[in-house]
């Protein structure tokens, strides 16, 4: 990311610079449109002048032809000008959406202090509103062209008419600029509150089942209602300011148009301008309301675009949580945890050789979760003591991409995405291990249950699947990835004992010769492992096969026997 992109104003400058060509063409065409619109009442005034003076059918026909040229210019310049600007706007919004999404999806997280729902709002609404600057600037310039042409035309008829337009326009913009600043500040706060409400919804949806379990649904609803009410109140405040802005703009524009009309009428009555010039002045007074309205609204949109750009900068300029290395693991699939101290983990040590199937029986769920976070590199190496080695290399020295390519950590609550069973199992579309993964995870019955098979549609978060089906689908995806090192965290907690027994046997068979670590209390998986490590009070307290530990370790037997 370049340095200018770290601020809201820098983001706007980047957008303007990147679309300079499209904006130049758009400004030219929209300027022609506004000039044509301005030329229409001027032409009408000239027609009246010549008709009254010459009374010639030829002059009338020529005047009609001139009006046709003006109308055609107005129509085509608007059509093609807006097409160019809207294409540039849409393309620029797409670029910023991708940029923000890339920051959210990159292997190294950013310390933006924003929830996923807030990032989603920034990547959609804020990106769109920031890109609006591509249209705002050309429309602002073209509106200025219309006001200047009007002022010059009226000034040629009578200097006081031209001065009135210039002074009135400056006064209108000065008054509205004050309101536009309030709109910008209010919009920033509104977007922040809407984003927080969106984040709260995402949290509630992901935690809906646990909330139902302990009866916390009503309290969660009240919490969301409070956040949503704050967002609504701020939206109402912004709407009031927008309404005041629009009303003030309309009123001031009407006052200026009325002043021009009355002044022209007085000058005509006094004989200082002709009837044709009066017709032109009245027509321009009516016409000028549109560019003035557009011109007066532009500061508001500039402030909104700037507010959105500043929110995007919160994501784009946020520092990375960690600075990854650049090396790659050596060949082989061994995993070593050496003296790790983090949370409840105390000098945790163990080594898994390449091709070995090891199960870890963690007596405390917190310790298991912390170990999974460390292995998944969700916790930066600098945030814990000790080291983790993959392929003989310390994780701190490896690039995150290299770690993820070599080692896959599948959490117990693996996310299910909207799509199909196939796209959830094989997002990359290789299809190499899909059948074997489906069979090993005992997902065969789910596939057979639907006529579409693997192409059966899956709703967002797997809403149309049971808990056990979602868990097996997540396991199938992990197995299909065929990583050198696979770490599974409680992969069978939502399936019955018979299915669990089959899954344990299948996973051991499919992963034979590949390094596999399963953090679990499942007797079936513990029995399928080559050896079991007992994690108690943050350290490894025992190591043996499952069956030997059952006969020699009473605490182990009480913890895992079902």
UniProtKB/TrEMBL annotation:
Residues 330-562 form the ABC transporter domain. Its main location: membrane. One of its GO terms (molecular function) is ATP hydrolysis activity. Gene3D superfamilies: ABC transporter type 1, transmembrane domain (1.20.1560.10), P-loop containing nucleotide triphosphate hydrolases (3.40.50.300). One of its GO terms (cellular component) is plasma membrane. PANTHER family: ATP-BINDING CASSETTE SUB-FAMILY B MEMBER 10, MITOCHONDRIAL (PTHR43394:SF1), ATP-DEPENDENT PERMEASE MDL1, MITOCHONDRIAL (PTHR43394). This is Putative ABC transport system ATP-binding protein.
């Amino acid at each position: 990311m370049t340095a200018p992109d770290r601020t809201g104003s820098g983001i706007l400058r980047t957008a303007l610079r990147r679309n300079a060509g499209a904006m130049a063409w758009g400004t030219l065409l929209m300027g022609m449109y506004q000039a044509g619109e301005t030329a229409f009442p001027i032409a009408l005034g000239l027609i009246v002048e010549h008709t009254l003076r010459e009374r010639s059918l030829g002059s009338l026909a020529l005047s009609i032809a001139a009006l046709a040229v003006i109308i055609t210019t107005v129509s085509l310049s608007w059509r093609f000008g807006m097409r160019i600007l809207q294409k540039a706007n849409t393309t620029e919004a797409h670029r910023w959406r991708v940029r923000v999404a890339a920051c959210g999806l990159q292997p190294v997280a950013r310390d933006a202090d924003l929830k996923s729902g807030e990032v989603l709002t920034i990547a959609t609404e804020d990106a769109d509103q920031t890109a609006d600057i591509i249209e705002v600037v050309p429309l602002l310039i073209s509106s200025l062209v219309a006001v200047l042409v009007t002022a010059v035309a009226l000034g040629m008829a009578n200097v006081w008419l031209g001065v009135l337009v210039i002074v009135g326009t400056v006064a209108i913009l000065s008054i509205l600029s004050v309101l536009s600043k309030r709109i910008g500040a209010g919009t920033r706060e509104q977007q922040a509150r809407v984003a927080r409400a969106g984040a709260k919804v995402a949290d509630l949806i992901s935690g809906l089942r646990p909330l139902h379990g302990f009866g916390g649904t009503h309290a969660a609803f009240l919490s969301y209602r409070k956040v949503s009410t704050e967002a609504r109140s701020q939206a109402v405040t912004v709407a009031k300011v927008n309404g005041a802005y629009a009303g003030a703009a309309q009123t001031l524009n009407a006052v200026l148009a009325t002043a021009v009309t009355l002044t022209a009428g007085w000058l005509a009555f006094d004989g200082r301008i002709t009837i044709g010039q009066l017709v032109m002045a009245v027509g321009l007074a009516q016409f000028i309301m549109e560019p003035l309205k557009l011109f007066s609204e532009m500061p508001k949109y500039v402030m909104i675009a700037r507010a959105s750009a500043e929110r995007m900068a919160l994501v784009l300029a946020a520092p990375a949580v960690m600075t990854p290395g650049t090396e790659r693991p050596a060949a082989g699939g061994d995993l070593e945890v050496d003296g790790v101290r983090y949370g409840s983990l105390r000098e945790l040590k163990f080594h898994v050789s390449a091709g070995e199937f090891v199960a870890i029986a963690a007596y405390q769920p917190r310790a298991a979760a912390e170990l999974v976070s460390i292995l998944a590199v969700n916790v930066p190496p600098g945030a814990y003591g000790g080291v983790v080695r993959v392929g003989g290399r310390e994780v701190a020295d490896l690039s995150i991409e290299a770690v993820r390519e070599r080692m896959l950590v599948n959490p117990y609550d693996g996310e299910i995405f909207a799509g199909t069973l196939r796209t959830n199992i094989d997002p990359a579309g290789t299809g190499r291990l899909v059948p074997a993964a489906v069979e090993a995870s005992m997902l065969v019955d789910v596939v057979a249950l639907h006529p579409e098979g693997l192409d059966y549609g899956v709703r967002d978060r797997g809403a149309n699947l049971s808990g056990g089906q979602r868990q097996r689908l997540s396991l199938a995806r992990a197995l299909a990835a065929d990583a050198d090192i696979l770490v599974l965290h409680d992969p069978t907690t939502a399936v019955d004992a018979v299915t669990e027994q089959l899954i344990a046997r299948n996973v051991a068979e499919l992963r034979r010769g590949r390094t596999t670590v399963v953090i679990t209390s499942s007797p079936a998986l513990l029995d399928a492992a080559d050896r079991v490590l007992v994690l108690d009070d943050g350290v490894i307290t025992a190591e043996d096969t499952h069956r030997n530990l059952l006969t020699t370790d009473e605490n182990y037997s009480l913890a895992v026997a079902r």
